[in-house]
Task: structure prediction
Amino acid sequence: MIKAAVLGFGTVGSGVVELIDINKKSVSRHVSEGMEVKYILDLREFPDSPYRDRVVHDFNIILEDPEIKVICETMGGKEPAYTFSRKALERGISVCTSNKELVAAHGPELLKIAEQNHCSYLFEASVGGGIPIIRPMNTSLAPENITQIIGILNGTTNYMMTRMELEDISFEDVLREAQEKGYAEKNPAADIEGRDACRKIAILSSLMCGKTVRFEDISCEGISHISMTDVAYARSMGRAIKLLGISERDEEAGTFYVRTAPFMVPASHPLHGVEDVFNAVFVHGNLLDNVMFYGRGAGKFPTASAVVSDMMDCALNIGQTIRIRWEDEKMELSDPGQKITQFFVRVPASEKARAQELFPGCVEAAPGCGPDDEFAFVTEPVAEAAFAECSSRLSEVRSAIRMLAD
Amino acid sequence: MIKAAVLGFGTVGSGVVELIDINKKSVSRHVSEGMEVKYILDLREFPDSPYRDRVVHDFNIILEDPEIKVICETMGGKEPAYTFSRKALERGISVCTSNKELVAAHGPELLKIAEQNHCSYLFEASVGGGIPIIRPMNTSLAPENITQIIGILNGTTNYMMTRMELEDISFEDVLREAQEKGYAEKNPAADIEGRDACRKIAILSSLMCGKTVRFEDISCEGISHISMTDVAYARSMGRAIKLLGISERDEEAGTFYVRTAPFMVPASHPLHGVEDVFNAVFVHGNLLDNVMFYGRGAGKFPTASAVVSDMMDCALNIGQTIRIRWEDEKMELSDPGQKITQFFVRVPASEKARAQELFPGCVEAAPGCGPDDEFAFVTEPVAEAAFAECSSRLSEVRSAIRMLAD
Result:
């Protein structure tokens, strides 16, 4: 029997413990010795839990038990998760985590420690919840020169945008509803300002190039400025507004454009139909062409399932490292101002002539869709810095949203 | 340098050789020694190919070269592919294949030989071309009790159905067009009669249960009877007709319903938007919920990319077996007549009263959509055998197509 320990008995951690029980048969079909959670580390007691006897409060009990081969770190946050993970890996105990904050900040360092100690550091659940994406990036897509990754990486904001689109509910109302349903946190800033999606596209971009894309370097725009008028325009143009994390190879510079922002996604794009709390990651490889991975981006059991798949991989590879190519060297990103983009723009009707002068070749968008007193248009492809400069010469810009290419 | 051999220099085989050259950098980022194709086995000469010097005609040259660690089998058909694969595995040489016919017929036997000889038999490219599905089934989804797999598994028929839907072209015309474009073969029977999709759902079903689902046991219906009238009805109902391979757990009997047939797919289902030559596999796990894998189901480089990802996995695991759980024991399937299904049905208007009597609770479908002289309806959920029996009591059934549940 492979003995494991779970650090943090919150939503995902308790899901891991329960899943290993509920799906015992599936687990032991692959890990023939079977797998068992021996310890649960948490500050709290859980007197009503059937797992109460496994709860410990001292990490050293786990670290010093030679039976423990795999640790599931579902504590969240940087500390003490970082210190515990490092200590475990230094003893040759594999660590599997859903902690995107820690992976984005210390991924390559922990991978290196794992390799030096013949164990593994795996983090399938840190991006896209239950969607298999980290392992496919590292195996199935390994022969490819990946040129583009586009992800719907945050369930809260995708749920909100879907509701606004399908039910004509305002941003404020849909946020309140999402909070009531438990899809959005009381302080929803990390989600709606795009920082959660930013950490995830940073991890995917790092795996794409093998170096470290720092999430602090990524230009990040959230969805709080998206209005019902924008949503109505998008619908009239056969598009849907989605918060995307995008990473694109800049062939000339040999580096990447990485960005998190709302985009108008055309109906012809496979990401268009990804609704509610579902997430998806679209990948373009130079020879494989397009692939997409779709599933639940969050939730107790989908996320736990991803963690347990990693734990099973570790159990099948005790004494060996499952290698993930990600170096600690910082990846310089391309200047986002040089990225060529088409914008959807809304200005007061009085600015129409000036807008047409500043953006030659622009095309009026969905005439009759918006209020009478405004002019909406789609620009020609333009460098983002040039767009910002020209926009600043308009008396008012009511909205400017990027268009995702077909 | 890891030395490999490619058996069969056709479309996929030549794609493998070229990909390893074109994407040398990506390959050696993961397989640090690098990988090289030393031999190409084919009956033909290729005097104009840059790889002509590697062509050999005698398999024994490959078998007896101790440098060869991995073989790519892209010959197609059962023989000599089966004999060559077996001989290679018996010598501890891993084999990676796109040959669905061979995998469906001899998969578990070859997996066993691989395990006995500390090498691997991998077949990512045998289902869904470039879509990562076999490896995720065996790793990412390993903790799950998979209850349903629904696949668009054949690019030719999906292209044809998409064209019929979007362009109002008849079955005969679209088949001719597909043949001209090289999407359909001169003899398209294996595709349009569903036998190709049947082999693929047999492989996926076998991985789902760990035993052998024989494709000969799967009820199989093709698309040649689908008319433009059917397509128009589907569109009016917000659905699209797609050829699906479906495998569903029958919880009571502990076995599976497996079927290949055209279905009317609702717009709310993620498979609805999978168009043209793209394929997708939708999987429901008991705790993971829904996931979907989408990509190119065929084509030289997408398929080659899947084969090369397997070859890289083998190169990283020389002397070890990458285990795939699939036993030679035959899986008995549930009686397809007992499966509960809703049908869309078209009968002459004169049969309306009798149809309503035979199918109580049936609902008229998209009134006004079809010709005046007919009555179209959707049945309540009904056992398929009971449906067939009732249908036989109607003077004429113009069409009967299954409805995929929301």
About this structure: Chain B has a mean pLDDT of 95. The two ends of chain B are 51 Å apart (CA to CA). Chain B touches chain A through 54 residues (CB under 8 Å). Residues 146 and 208 of chain B are 7 Å apart (CA to CA).
